[in-house]
């Protein structure tokens, strides 16, 4: 423990969120690699293109669920270390895919997805448990900055490598993902374990020491007692926790809120833009997708700027307010091109790219970061690991479905019609926020849990009375 006394809070928050770089890079890298892979392997089947792109998200569905359960037993830190190793190995194996080894590449990307999904579940939980309540929104927002920075890095690397021979460029693009994984592993070796996990494991002295890294001295004992009280209240239910426990009357309200937000973030169609923007530009303009790799960089810059804007405004506006604003503008950005194209059939085909950029700009400082903030702070302690894993799995189910179905949908429908469907989903997302999600800004995790379980208890009593 002496060695860990030198760990600064800045180091903890930086490497605690660095896992976002991993799945940010892998979300973005296929955007540039896909056009070269298609040419190198002569990939023309829309379903195979969708599977190659979405295989990582398919693996992430299971990685997130498994990591959520194991994190409650082994700890957040140890699971992040394991994820970084799997990510590094999987990235290298993808780069060494045999020629025309489509199914091998799909299999390796599913394996890689296990680590990506694990990181998506573990990083928000770790950050929310380390951060003080008044800074939790902005500090957890660092996770989103890491994700979009990873995406931007991958876009830039794709652009730099685009002039290499096709059979080399896409392999390097995929294989270089091992670099941030190795950096993450080295950094996490020095990180402490989450204080909430330590208290649940009855390692109180270690928990006090970890809290001393990120809290004022006078705050440590108060937080230890608050966590102990919550843990004591939930001890019996923790021993009996199962998947069914997530949806009993006590926890249902908060679990549905967190899982619903995570699912809507992806089903609203953001990753259709991030995975396929060169192909979207190709279909709109007729130019080759491999010559449109500047557009992903534009999207990446918008995402990074938006994530930094979020960190600045995170504690100035309520979570629900920002999600409502973002979801409304996102819906209009998807719906308006279809309306304009219906009124003015000869409108510029680049109009859709303009509106997609507006979508990305508002998504970047609302739904993108706030999803992970809410997932990290809304779930009760007794089911937090399992519920976080479930939320991340639903998030990756949406991401996988969008990645798989978008090329199939655009092969049979106009792009305006496809995005209009996503626009309607954005509308439902806004309604979900207004009616099903509690406000969490400025409240401790224990306060959020108390309010949520009281809400569930009230609803259960009203149901009994009505019967």
Automatic annotation (TrEMBL):
<keyword id="KW-0812">Transmembrane</keyword>
<feature type="transmembrane region" description="Helical">
    <location>
        <begin position="417"/>
        <end position="437"/>
    </location>
</feature>
<keyword id="KW-1133">Transmembrane helix</keyword>
<dbReference type="InterPro" id="IPR047984">
    <property type="entry name" value="XylE-like"/>
</dbReference>
<protein>
    <submittedName>
        <fullName>Sugar porter family MFS transporter</fullName>
    </submittedName>
</protein>
<comment type="similarity">
    <text>Belongs to the major facilitator superfamily. Sugar transporter (TC 2.A.1.1) family.</text>
</comment>
<feature type="transmembrane region" description="Helical">
    <location>
        <begin position="104"/>
        <end position="127"/>
    </location>
</feature>
<dbReference type="InterPro" id="IPR050360">
    <property type="entry name" value="MFS_Sugar_Transporters"/>
</dbReference>
<dbReference type="InterPro" id="IPR020846">
    <property type="entry name" value="MFS_dom"/>
</dbReference>
<dbReference type="InterPro" id="IPR036259">
    <property type="entry name" value="MFS_trans_sf"/>
</dbReference>
<feature type="transmembrane region" description="Helical">
    <location>
        <begin position="139"/>
        <end position="157"/>
    </location>
</feature>
<feature type="transmembrane region" description="Helical">
    <location>
        <begin position="350"/>
        <end position="375"/>
    </location>
</feature>
<feature type="transmembrane region" description="Helical">
    <location>
        <begin position="12"/>
        <end position="36"/>
    </location>
</feature>
<dbReference type="InterPro" id="IPR003663">
    <property type="entry name" value="Sugar/inositol_transpt"/>
</dbReference>
<feature type="transmembrane region" description="Helical">
    <location>
        <begin position="387"/>
        <end position="411"/>
    </location>
</feature>
<feature type="transmembrane region" description="Helical">
    <location>
        <begin position="322"/>
        <end position="344"/>
    </location>
</feature>
<feature type="domain" description="Major facilitator superfamily (MFS) profile">
    <location>
        <begin position="12"/>
        <end position="441"/>
    </location>
</feature>
<feature type="transmembrane region" description="Helical">
    <location>
        <begin position="48"/>
        <end position="67"/>
    </location>
</feature>
<feature type="transmembrane region" description="Helical">
    <location>
        <begin position="253"/>
        <end position="277"/>
    </location>
</feature>
<dbReference type="Pfam" id="PF00083">
    <property type="entry name" value="Sugar_tr"/>
</dbReference>
<keyword id="KW-0472">Membrane</keyword>
<dbReference type="InterPro" id="IPR005828">
    <property type="entry name" value="MFS_sugar_transport-like"/>
</dbReference>
<feature type="transmembrane region" description="Helical">
    <location>
        <begin position="79"/>
        <end position="98"/>
    </location>
</feature>
<dbReference type="InterPro" id="IPR005829">
    <property type="entry name" value="Sugar_transporter_CS"/>
</dbReference>
<keyword id="KW-1003">Cell membrane</keyword>
<feature type="transmembrane region" description="Helical">
    <location>
        <begin position="292"/>
        <end position="313"/>
    </location>
</feature>
<feature type="transmembrane region" description="Helical">
    <location>
        <begin position="169"/>
        <end position="189"/>
    </location>
</feature>
<keyword id="KW-0813">Transport</keyword>
